[in-house]
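Ligand: glutamic acid. Inputs:
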Amino acid sequence: MSAHPLIEKKYRGRFAPSPTGPLHFGSLVAAIGSYLDAKFNQGKWLVRIEDIDSQREVPGAASEILFALESLGMEWDEEIIFQSRRSEAYQEALNRLENQNLTYPCVCSRKEVADSSIIGFSGPIYPGTCLKNPPSLGKSYSLRVQTNENQIQFQDILKGSYSQKLKLEIGDFVLRRVDGVYAYQLAVVVDDAEQGITHVVRGADLLDSTPRQIFLQQLLGFSTPRYMHLPVVTNVEGEKLSKQTNAEPIELESVLPQLVKALYFLGQNPPLEILEGDLSSFWKWARKNWQINLIPR
Ligand code: GLU
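Predicted complex:
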């Protein structure tokens, strides 16, 4: 059921690549899915470079990704946000949580956490050691948020109902690492709110992060966007395509076949003649004929 058209917020979607390497087929699928869903709904499509962790960043990758999007004919609306320039906004959000006594310092090393925790599907479930025994703060520390046993539930557009009890399934998670880097979960929530995102379309590898993000949105008083988690592209070994699994960059000499392949991957049925046309006829067809009910679940 949708809200009255006059009060429904205008669609604002986004693509948020981490510049850990050039655009590959897996990230192309996330880019196209988010782009077409926004355009089909007469919405805006924003791009955000998630370069918060400089250790993981590959120099030049951000501009390569943006160049690839342009070559593919995917134009973004509004200015690009770079997470590396937004520390103040993340710290401000963290201060708000700190002022509500929702965060606590943690001095446990990775090994200590691993040794003292049950392993959940998203890594060790931190048992709250430093909440029970607050450390003396001589050395550097990370900041964790206190989770609870409430069920966080949302309706994914493709996957249906999904829920987690964070305290039991994830544990109190890190918002600022010991090296001062703000965690993805915090940055993404602050940025989605800042950019007024109404629809998050991304790979299903992030499905289990969504309850953490909804939890932070609730603590910070942000609205929760709609979520649609797309099927993840894997290689023959069944691993997600990524820089770590040596995914091939998108060839920019002949983009049309790759765009068509990405549409097929998303269950769409472009006619083969589309390969004989140009980029603009491809996008015209794709924007008009986007059907989410064809996307494999
Ligand atoms: N930066 C993340 C990635 O490249 C995506 C984050 C998101 O879409 O929320 O996997």
